[in-house]
Amino acid sequence: MPALFRPDRSCPLPADAEIVTRHNRPHLHVKENGKSQYYPLSKDKTKYLKPSSKWCAEVRQSDDSIKRVRFSVNKEASQRMLVQLLKKIDEERSGVRDQYSDHRSRPLCDVLDDYRQHHRDRGTTEKQAGQAVSRCQRVFDGCRFLIISDLDGTPAGKWLADQRRKKIGPQTHNHYVAALIGFGNWLVKARRIPENPFRFLERQTVDVDVRHVRRTLTVEEMDRLLLAAASGKTFRKLSGPQRRWLYLVSSMTGLRASELASLTTKSFHLDDDPPHVVVEAKISKHRKRDTVPLHPDLVIELRNWFREKEADSALWPGKWAKHNEAGDMIRHDLAQARRNWLAEAKTVAEREEREKSDFLRYENSKKEKADFHSLRHRFVTALIDSGVSPAATKELARHSTITLTMDRYNHTSLKGVAPDIAKLKMPGTGAVPGAVTGDNPCGNMTTGDEKIAMKIKDLSIADGLEMQAINESGGDLKIVEKSTPGGIRTPNPRFRRPMLCPVELRVPASSVYDFALPFSRPHQTRPGSAG
Question: What are the chain's domains?
Fold first, then answer.
């Protein structure tokens, strides 16, 4: 077994060096921590040799090359590490090689650069790649992970829990978890580690603590927003009319800010059947080429606007989408629209009443925000309120699941769905002749027979007895009460259920009984019974 030793490293002599002779060789005498230390001088006597703090060994590798390996400052720990290294070298000579050993000590900063390049090779946008890498980097810095072997899901989960208690919400927590799990899966696929250390991190329920809730603008709010933007000045390098068209197209197509920023006049096919706008795959969120149909009224307005545009010119140029400035623009125009609305008040009392309202506010009293992405929410909500089926709404919104469409983007209010309840038909309201209603619980009958009919009704309800009304032509109306005399049910030992014996009760046929009892209509049996 190779011997452990601590190699010498040369250090320059201090100006007031004290040179003494020990073992027939010059040494430097210094005091460290109150103790005298003697270090031999180099051959040229300009430096002194000081032992390294870590133990080393000259180890012959599996390819017969000799390599100096550094271990630990503790000699016993270094001895155990040397034994493990020799065992590994013997396994490699036997053909058993640890394919992960070369990556365990790689710095995470270099590995994250490879991960970013992996996202680029997949065709992911630079923004998405940057978000995935930056989120992983924040967790690694917080947990003080430096190399691949430091990666551990338990400290990462504790760090996220601390951040969740301080400032981040459940949705942001889930974004971090998704980034860590994606990074761990890539390490496994790239054969850097044997298993994903973050696979057991759990996501949080976002409904219990929503930090950013969006609301949809009403029709009147949209009209005033478009009017304020059209007459507004240039903001974030977009003129007022450009912002007006931006809000209008977004609310009528549901396109995202990055998708709108990429559109040119050639992206709109107004002469096709049906007219549509095309979003290229490299811009679309799900990396597919999207074709979105256009509203007929929007097509007419776009034709007039495009007459002023050059061929293949960008409709909304600049980096406003990349710098996330769309929210600033709509907030600016909403504030101006609200000021215009408040100025229209004719009296002081009316103005004070309007100032209390949430009309045209960016954030209302319920902490709901009307940011730029809320225009996409408004597009989905307007489709559903107009009677468009959920499946068609999902396709127009280009969502992956219908749950996302109906749960997150649908903002249909109680006031909007309340009229739909009137479409239901209440049972027992006279749809069937002689049906029992609240005003006439016994149906249509003559006054003289009310007492008999009420007794029959009470029997059927109180005792749970089956009755069948049979109108015999030219005779009496016979009501057959299926029960035993005295109202006692006799069990059938074979079927273990009550056996009913018929008893006839005759009522004069001169009285017309047109009422319905439970399961009393001709050719109708009790649900679940045979026949």
Answer: 8-93 (no CATH), 108-208 (1.10.150), 219-408 (1.10.443.10), 426-531 (no CATH)
